[in-house]
Write the structure tokens for this entry.
Amino acid sequence: MFLKEYFLDIYKATKSLLTGMKLTGYYFTHHKEILTEEYPENRKSLQLAERFRGEVIMPHDANNEHTCTGCSSCEIACPNGSIKIISKFDITPEGKKKKAIDQHIYHLELCTMCGLCVEACPTDAIKMANTFEHSVFNRNHLIKRLNKPGSKIKEGIEE
Amino acid sequence: MFSLEGITNFIHEWLNSHLPATFALLVEFVLVGVAAIGLFAFLGLVLVWMERKVAAVMQLRLGPNRLGPKGIFQTSADTLKLIMKEALTPDNADKLLFNLAPFVVIIVAMLILAPISFAKNFQIWDINIGVLYVTAISSLSVIGVLMAGWSSGNKYSLLGAMLSGAQIVSYELSAGLSILTIIVLTGSLKISDIVASQENGWWIFKGHIPAIIAFVIFIIASTAETNRAPFDLAEAESELTAGFHTEYGGMKFALFFLAEYINIFIVCAIGATLFLGGWMPFHIGHWVAFNHIMDYIPSSFWFFGKTGFLIFLIMWFRWTFPRLRVDQLLNLEWKYLLPISMFNLLLMSVMAIMGWYF
């Protein structure tokens, strides 16, 4: 019985090693399986995953309208203070004062791309874009204003 | 037709017609030395590049691809960097042994080159105990490894060197026995005789199953002897921080690294000589036309082709198999490889006596 186990061991070991070699041998002969992307060359055809987090942006529609209410949820959620909301008070047609966003300041140089601001936003005003070529020569260029000049909040978001 | 034999004969005749015999011999010594060092440098550059490429493709990567076409100059650039780095000696190292160890390792590798037959009649020294010489000298490399580990004054290095020593010493047994299995058939230790005996077929085909078992055992044992994965306990990057060469830097490290690849080349060359017919072309029985076409391929191409195939096989192992634990490593040798190769040797002796081989 000992000998039977002995040879069974050898047989099993050989079989499992050959299974492994078959897989790596397949990869060696099939170069289309290679996953590496050659970045600067394939810049034009680069396909990034939907969930890739490159920077925070605020989408604006064709009428230059966004959905940010200026509630500061993102500012509170940000763990390292990359977001600063500067709010202003609009006068509504009824003559009431109403809080609104003046500037949504985003410090890209501080951001760790954790995405907590996007999760905290109650109106889905901000999201993560998958641009990633952010290098600049002056770091002041990394301080961004997310709401475009002259933009206003979309009707019916605050109700 | 291209042949290395023609080149050496031409140099020999030219030197002898211009110089007295003694000086001609001395010049030939120097030329052989330069050629050996040149081969080493070339092998180091090419094999490291090949290893990185093979590893990359097997792991679905691209590997070096920036410097030159397909990254072929990457290893040259790495070597240049290593040459310019400072090779410092640690304070509590044994200075003499520490500086001697890399040279011991590389000189041993260089010595084994002597009896290897690279092509038809192209051999540095056709010694009549060729295979014995190779096995004897290759076991010396463990001294260099132990020296490096001991003299570094570092517990990781010492542990790595001890593991390496245990490993090389035990795997030499089964490597030696599988070599003996072929020696039983050839009846000669001389490399040129061994190659000549394979004119009508390589031993791996002529020797039936025992020859194949011996070949497999030889490949396993030589992988272990060169300290390569899956037997790279001596280096164990993750737990011993590279083992015996932890403290080495710059060119001294490069010599260890080079010696590893030279040793791979040498064990594969020995394997190709013993089992795959050395520089003998591939012949099939009575297919005269086919055999004739095969004869047209220069013998050096055959030798380097077979050696390259074996090197590829060893690289394939490295990038496929998981590493063994030290007890598993010694179990494999003493419980499996050694008894099997002893039995195999017995079987082969019976076959040789009865003439049950082609």
About this structure: The radius of gyration of chain A is 27 Å. Chain A has two domains: 2-33, 55-153. The longest strand of chain A covers residues 97-107. The interface with chain B takes residues 10, 17, 20-21, 23-25, 27-28, 31, 33-36, 38 of chain A (CB under 8 Å).
